[in-house]
Design goal:
27% helix; 7 helices; alpha/beta; 6-stranded mixed β-sheet
């Protein structure tokens, strides 16, 4: 159905003249950004890894170009935030002991010295030692969110992002049984290991992953960070967890991130 539009107003100038000057060929005209199509992902069932259905995600979520500088800033930001900064030493005024001078200032032929809490003596204070401090650094929220989606896009472009059905669980909590499944599906130690991200890990799943010895790691969606996404050989993530993480890290986008269809 065609849409109706109002007619342009008739100019009072003579025919051939216009109120607006024609665009100059020297001034570049702004072009509209090309519309990127959605990317296709396959949703698998764990642990059989049987493909069940497809899911579509926006290209600005899982098909971003690789930005090593942004990933580096995000990893440094996370590492600084995890540093405890609890190392502490005592200066000579904080060491318990007498403040009496050990020997006279002159006449002994030895070096001058104060009390036994001097930094040059054993058991004394520590000169310029560490004290509790905050190592955390700042990073804009938009840059950190872009790094999150860049890490996921890096895994997707390399075919290392595996989307799973919700409520991932296993029948037995035997690590050797799970290790065989991981090796059979090329998700184990020989292929770099895998990271499984779930919303609420079950008890059997946690016990089985605890004894995998390098085949894979299990983390909840609240504990995973950018470094975890880059460290593992493959990333297996529940569909609801992926939707929630993409929605959480979308502050740099102008529009609301829709969930996968």
């Amino acid at each position: 159905m065609a849409t109706e539009a109002s007619l342009p107003e008739i100019s009072s100038l003579p025919i051939g003249l216009s109120n607006q000057a024609p665009p100059s060929p020297l001034i570049p005209q702004r072009r509209a950004a090309p519309i990127q199509p959605d990317v296709l992902t396959t949703v698998y069932k764990f642990p059989s890894m049987e493909p069940m259905r497809f899911a579509y995600y926006p290209a600005n979520n899982l098909f971003l170009p690789l930005r090593r500088d942004i990933l580096h800033r995000a990893v440094i930001f996370e590492g600084d935030a995890k540093r405890q900064g609890t190392a502490s030493t005592k200066w000579r005024t904080e060491v318990h002991g007498s403040s009496r001078k050990l020997r006279p200032q002159k006449g002994t032929g030895r070096a001058r010295i104060g009390d036994k809490k001097s930094p040059v003596l054993k058991g004394g204070g520590v000169a310029f030692g560490p004290h509790p401090r905050d190592f955390s650094t700042g990073l804009p929220r938009k840059i950190y969110d872009l790094a999150w989606r860049t890490a996921l896009s890096y895994r997707y472009r390399r075919g290392q992002l595996v989307v799973l059905l919700n409520d991932v669980d296993i029948e037995m909590n035997e690590p050797r049984w799970l290790a065989q499944i991981m090796e059979w599906n090329h998700l184990g130690r020989g292929d770099g290991g895998s990271l499984l991200v779930t919303q609420n890990p079950s008890e059997k799943l946690s016990q089985a992953f605890h004894g995998l010895e390098g085949h894979g790691r299990l983390k909840s969606e609240d504990d995973v960070d950018v470094k975890d996404l880059l460290k593992a050989g493959r990333v297996m993530i529940e569909k609801t967890s992926l939707d929630r993480l993409l929605r959480r890290h979308s502050s740099d986008l102008n529009r609301k991130v829709p969930s996968a269809m």
